[in-house]
Specification:
Type Iii Antifreeze Protein Isoform Hplc 12, TIM Barrel, 12 helices, eight-stranded parallel beta sheet, 2 domains, 12 strands, alpha/beta, 351 residues
């Protein structure tokens, strides 16, 4: 079992739902606080941001992806990212604000300095490795050592990754000694078409790496996270925004607050529907079972002293008498009394 703050995460626990605010604060701490409010109001388990120092993670010549060109204005990737960068002091304030709203706060560290601040100063209870960093051997090693030092889990997204790249990252984490790992299946397109989701790959990751799995969802499809939970996702991560029409790279691939609330509610209802792996008589079935099941009855009038043969008995509703599966016990016995046609058979009426 894995623990994130006060929440247990595992196959027998409620799905851990991360409301991914990401960079949808647009560089404004007050918008970030409103995102925390929306995540808390939706009853998500955690709200997550992203923390970086722009000069440590991107060159000034880096190009934007196609969806970023459409949603993010004309400035360079570097300048756009710089405008979204929040200070470390702002993140400390956000972690404290999330605590006041009784929701776990996480943030993906995109560089080693940010990692140290988030874990050592903000007491972050789990470390998320984004899909873009899955080949960053230096960051992965540092994250793994920090996770062991603090006894906290690592959550690794696998978007854009071939199996050998995932194996590379997982081997680093496991060889260093972290046994608290959750792999998130992910498709890093914004938004993701359902044809590209391929949720069965999540189950393949679970089998291949013998670890907990979840799903980081970039679709706008309401069914996708529900199907992921039904397939065994112990974590669901979903982007959300205050307004999908805001400028920025991720808003258009994000849920709005009322949609986030609905998603959380749908996941919780799906968990009730899934139930357990035990097959038992449901409490609500007891009356139906009594009324609809069949009992052994006399097929015709049976007189006292008659030796019972199978053709003297039949099975009819209701199920309040002797079960048909008990019939063999009656064959060869003698009736103690006269039994009317259709009368429920009782074992004490025979000798």
């Amino acid at each position: 079992m894995i623990k994130i703050a006060n929440k247990l995460v595992g196959n027998d626990q409620p799905c851990f739902i991360i409301a991914e605010a990401g960079v949808n604060h647009n560089g404004d701490i007050e918008i970030a606080k409103k995102l925390i409010d929306a995540a808390a109001d939706a009853a998500a388990d955690a709200v997550k941001f992203q923390t970086w120092i722009t000069d440590e993670i991107v060159t000034k010549s880096a190009e934007k992806a196609g969806y970023q060109k459409t949603n993010w204005g004309a400035d360079s990737f570097y300048d756009n990212l710089k405008n979204l960068e929040l200070s470390y002091e702002a993140f400390k304030e956000l972690f404290n604000y999330a605590k006041s709203r009784d929701i776990i706060c996480l943030s993906t560290p995109d560089d080693i300095t940010s990692l140290d601040y988030l874990v050592d100063v903000c007491d972050m209870p789990a470390i998320k490795i984004g899909s873009g960093a899955i080949t960053d051997i230096r960051l992965i090693k540092k994250i793994t050592k920090k996770s062991i030092e603090k006894n906290i889990p690592v959550i690794l997204s696998t978007g854009m990754s071939a199996l050998d790249e995932i194996t590379f990252a997982v081997n680093i984490i496991k060889n260093i000694g972290n046994d608290k790992l959750i792999l998130l299946h992910c498709t890093s397109t914004y938004p993701t078409n359902i044809e590209d989701v391929n949720l069965r790959a999540m189950k393949m990751l679970e089998t291949t790496f013998n670890t907990y799995v979840g799903y980081s969802d970039h679709t706008l499809d309401k069914a996708t996270p529900i199907v992921a939970v039904a397939l065994g996702a112990v974590v669901i991560e979903k982007h959300f925004t205050l307004d999908r029409n805001l400028p920025g790279p991720d808003h258009q691939a994000s849920l709005e607050p009322e949609e986030l609330t609905r998603m959380v509610d749908d996941i919780r209802r799906s968990e009730i529907i899934l139930g357990s792996d035990k097959k038992e008589v449901a409490k609500g079935e007891e009356e139906t079972r009594r009324l609809i099941r069949r009992s052994i009855v006399a097929k015709e009038e049976i007189f006292a002293g008659t030796k019972i043969e199978e053709d003297l008995l039949t099975f009819k509703i209701p199920g309040t008498g002797l079960s048909p599966k008990q019939m063999d016990k009656l064959i060869g016995l003698k009736a103690k009394r006269n039994i009317k046609k259709d009368e429920l058979i009782k074992i004490e009426d025979f000798e």
